[in-house]
Amino acid sequence: MSDPYKALDFYNVDDLYAEEERMIRDTVRSWVSDRFMPVIEEHNRAATFPTELIPELGEMGVYGASLTGYGCAGLSPIASGLICQELERGDSGLRSFVSVQGSLCMYPIWAFGTEEQKQKYLPDMAAGKLIGCFGLTEADFGSNPGGMLTKAVEDGDHYVLNGSKYWITNGSTCQVAIIWAKLNGVIRGFLIDSDTPGFTAKQIKNKFSLRASDTSELVFEDCRIPKTQLLPGIEGIKGPLSCLTQARFGIAFGAIGAAQAAYDEALRYSQIRISFDKPIARYQLVQNKLVWMAAEITKAQLMCWQLAKLKSEGTMHHYHVSMAKRNSCWMALECCRIGRDILGANGITDEYQMMRHMCNLESVITYEGTHDIHGLIIGRQLTGEDAIT
Ligand SMILES: Cc1cc2nc3c(=O)[nH]c(=O)nc-3n(C[C@H](O)[C@H](O)[C@H](O)COP(=O)(O)OP(=O)(O)OC[C@H]3O[C@@H](n4cnc5c(N)ncnc54)[C@H](O)[C@@H]3O)c2cc1C
Predict the structure, then answer these.
(1) How far is the CA of 253 from the centre of ligand 1 (A)?
(2) Does residue 278 share a domain with residue 191?
(3) pLDDT tens for residues 234-287?
(4) Which residues are known to be catalytic?
(5) How far apart are CA 361 and CA 193, in angstroms?
(6) Is the CB of residue 368 below 6 angstroms from any atom belonging to ligand 1?
(7) Which of 151, 216, 255, 383 has its CA 20 to 30 A from that of 284?
(8) Do both 83 and 146 map to the same domain?
(9) Mutate which of 187, 207, 366 to test ligand 1's pocket (most atoms within 8 Å of Cβ)?
């Protein structure tokens, strides 16, 4: 059956995008309908990522789409945001895969790496021939990554790493890992090829959320890497945080895609589901739920459009991104919860997408800064008072 998806655009937000941006968005939208939707439920059940699609995503230019040179597409912030929106309409795991590759792995190499590192990794990563992961979180240090225990020590012309990372997207799929570890007490970024002796990855099983995504534990035991694998251009927690700002920008757009999928499915269902001899779309309470979803999606679209404009103009700050990431994830999760209610009992089966998106969004609202941590980042900006530490 062809994918019947129709994206909500109640305010003609499309008019705010350039023709090229709409074209890119539509290309990714069609790809998701034609190539991804037919396989996602099967992968979600099996808890596997459709690795066979990785090269096709490379051909579309979605990896590191906003970066310039080294085979990257050099797209505008809006175009790269809309790519995330369309990918996440398919599944948050698909958008996570692309975000990790582009914003969390290619970006730090592009921004902080040597020319040699850029040449070695970026063109293959842009093509999807080489997959990366980003290791910041540890089992006991999520919201407070600065407390990390993973350490690097100098040993001649090598560094030796010991420690572990937890909840790492693409951890078992990757060929290169960007690992944040303390060197003489200062957080630094290291490029570790996954075939380095002492590097092991193990998938975290039995997740209810982001099932079609590899989430792994990484362990480093006397992992020796040449000194040329250090990212020289950044020191301290601002290194990983600057990558997270890039990725959170994509999440802010991405979650709108999941919300649009939820709205679309709920609307179509309400028009054909008969209760008391009428389609449930005829009932005021059901309409009110759809109206809530449509209004929140529209507000998020406009917020993200302005966020992208700030990014284009070079005036976007991390707290702007926090507000959009926090808002989009919350509203998308609420849309799925309300949408699940509209679907009644059918909403709990995987014949419908609703609960897959809902469960995924429980991760998306938590990773890359929880809802509350983003609230505190915004609160700090508004009040000048730091309530995080
Ligand atoms: C599917 C998935 C994929 C992930 N992928 C990656 C990845 O690729 N790379 C990576 O490095 N990490 C990844 N993560 C980790 C993710 O970023 C962390 O889980 C997240 O930062 C939250 O950390 P935590 O789980 O340790 O929660 P905690 O930090 O333990 O937080 C638990 C609760 O306490 C609250 N809390 C914590 N501190 C405060 C405070 N100061 N004030 C008020 N409330 C507070 C939080 O808001 C939350 O509600 C992933 C996580 C998931 C679930």
Answers:
(1) 20
(2) no
(3) 999 999 999 999 999 999 999 999 999 999 999 999 999 999 999 999 999 999
(4) 368
(5) 30
(6) yes
(7) 255
(8) no
(9) 366
